[in-house]
Amino acid sequence: MVADLVARGITDEAVLTALRSVPRHGFIEGALDAEAYLDKALPIQSGQTISQPFTVAYQTQLLKLRPGMKVLEIGTGSGYQAAVLAVMGMRVFTVEIDRRLYLEARSRLEDLGYAVNCQHSDGSSGWAAHQPYDCILVTAATPAVPDALRNQLGIGGRLVVPVGGLTSQRMMVVTRLAKAEFQSEILHEFKFVPLRGKYGFQTG
Ligand code: SAH
Question: If both were cysteines, with which of 23, 53, 122, 183 could 197 make a disulfide (CB 3.0 to 4.6 Å apart)?
Answer without folding.
Answer: 122
